[in-house]
Amino acid sequence: MATAQKKTESPKPKRRSPITRAEGERRLIAAATELIQKRPYSEVGVRDIAELADVNHGFVHTWFGSKNDLLLAVVRQQFQELANAVRSAQPGQPALLFNDPHVVAIIRLVLWLDLEGVNTGNLFQDMPILDALTARYVEVEKIDPSIARAAAIQAISIGLGAGTFAPILGMESAEDTIPIMDLWRHVVGLLSKYPPA
Fold first, then answer.
1. How many CB atoms lie within 10 A of CB 11?
2. pLDDT digits (tens, 9 = 90+) for 18-71
3. pLDDT digit string, tens, across residues 107-120
4. What CA–CA distance (Å, rounded) separates 86 from 49?
5. Cut 0.85: pTM above it
6. How far apart are CA 96 and CA 191, in angstroms?
7. 70 found inside a domain
8. Are 21 and 80 in a shared domain?
9. How many domains does the chain have?
10. Could you tell me which residues come within 8 angstroms of residue 96 by beta carbon, excluding any fewer than 6 positions away?
11. How far is CA 112 from CA 79, 122, 164, 172, in A?
């Protein structure tokens, strides 16, 4: 009877092979991104990510070093996508929506990695979002270049706080954070018209 059962079971699909490192890394980052949006970070394992990516789990360690290093790669990719969104935002519109669930998830991932002891400091030293927002403040908002980067750092800090702590502060929906971001837009306008001496 066991033999009859074996004959009716369909074989497991084989892993695609061979793949390039670039393709494997791309698939692992995409799989990790998908999984961390569905489950707590601590419950997402290397094998889960590799299985979804259809890549041998050993390559996570070979190409990235660890699960946390792979998650850092996810953050870097997400930061680049957010920087592209800042560059393409229309004048008069918010460059970033910190109440967007996707953005909140990235912020929380960075905080989680930091709590796990991962060095996240270099993420913000070479942050394409900060560069894109600084350029936007100079080119679109007409803020003095000497203060544009500081204004961009403030904007990101406000957004990080609002996105991370909104539930703690009683802001249950995206609409609850709008007054905070509107107030910041007002400050940006004032910085444009009245730069600090």
1. 5
2. 689 999 999 999 999 999 988 999 899 999 999 999 999 999 999 999 999 999
3. 889 889 999 998 88
4. 29
5. no
6. 18
7. no
8. no
9. 2
10. 82, 85, 86, 89, 103, 129, 133, 155, 159
11. 16, 15, 11, 21
